[in-house]
Amino acid sequence: MNYRHAFHAGNFADVFKHALLTRILLYMVQKPSKMVLLDTHAGTGFYDLKSEEAQRSPEWQHGIARMADADLGAAAELFAPYLKIALQGRSEFHMNVYPGSPYVARDLLRPIDRLVLCELHGLDADTLRENMGRDKRVDVRHANGYACIKALVPPMERRGLIFIDPPFETRSEWDDMIGSVNLALGKWSSGTYVLWYPLKNGNEGNALCEALDQTKITKMLLLELQIQPVGIAGKHARTGLSGCGMVVINPPYILAQEAELMLPEMARHLALGQSAWRVEWIRQS
Ligand SMILES: C[S@@+](CC[C@H](N)C(=O)[O-])C[C@H]1O[C@@H](n2cnc3c(N)ncnc32)[C@H](O)[C@@H]1O
């Protein structure tokens, strides 16, 4: 396990996934019944942007730093809750820290909700436990996120979100993600699933949707952000990705409309080259 999120915290991909995760959660917590959020690849929860890792190739400078004071046009209100969470550690002149997905989720969940956080790297799991402090809603597990999906689904709450944000270090990552989601859908087709993926050749999102078990899915939305043309990934000094995307199974009905306002702003402010975005219903019953 070589991937350390500390090197990437606050980059364009974090802005994309956390801004959209915030919108999904804000909608889900409006319903009175309790919910669970399973973050299968949680990281450490909180990142020091002054650390050696974050300073080495400060990706956050082309991510959250660009969004911090940007004119976000008609999407400004939609970004506001995310930016409030993401910028809470900012002093007058410096971005000091960046919160990861566990912190974003913990901020938005209610006292009745539950947050299960899985992290396979031992040291990161310890740091995550420390960063989450004492919170009865939070269950930190030093475990494989895919095994956690299998163990948790269907959750006792019967309502919830599975957020899958792997490092894509190994060739088997796609198969692991697809296999475990297909298995989970068989037991819990009404859950909301968010599957994050990197964009390198541009076809990853379509391939992922095709591999998911369509017989169990009635609603599936694809969201993508490209910050530079596909095909130059890995050659660019500042980022190894051309963009990223997420497939959302059973999204809140409003998410597509909100993403249509938010993604153009992300494409405008986070671009490193010719940028693009995509909001597409793959299945809509
Ligand atoms: C992209 S980072 C997660 C970032 C985090 N979701 C966020 O948004 O702040 C991926 C994390 O998954 C961890 N990891 C890798 N394989 C894993 C697995 N099979 N199960 C759980 N965690 C894993 C890595 O150690 C890394 O911390």
- Any low-confidence stretches, pLDDT <50, length ≥5? none
Helix-strand pattern: HEEHHHEHEHEHEHEHEEHE
**Could you tell me the radius of gyration in angstroms?**
17 Å
Overall, the morphology is globular
Could you give the count of β-strands? 10
CATH class: Alpha Beta
The major β-sheet equals:
8 strands, mixed
From the N-terminal CA to the C-terminal CA, the straight-line distance is 40 Å
CATH superfamily: Vaccinia Virus protein VP39
Descriptive overview:
The protein has 285 residues and is α/β, with parallel strands linked by helices. The protein has a single domain (5-284), classed as 3-Layer(aba) Sandwich (Rossmann fold), CATH 3.40.50. The chain has helices spanning 12-28, 52-56, 64-68, 76-86, 101-108, 122-132, 145-152, 173-187, 204-211, 255-270, and strands spanning 36-39, 46-48, 97-99, 114-118, 138-141, 160-164, 192-199, 219-226, 243-249, 276-284. The chain is built from 10 helices and 10 strands. It binds S-adenosylmethionine. S-adenosylmethionine (SAM) is lined by residues 1, 3, 5, 17, 40-43, 100-101, 118-121, 124, 144-146, 165-167.
Task: Provide a concise account of the structure shown.
The protein has 285 residues and is of the alpha/beta class. It has helices at residues 12-28, 52-56, 64-68, 76-86, 101-108, 122-132, 145-152, 173-187, 204-211, 255-270, and strands at 36-39, 46-48, 97-99, 114-118, 138-141, 160-164, 192-199, 219-226, 243-249, 276-284.
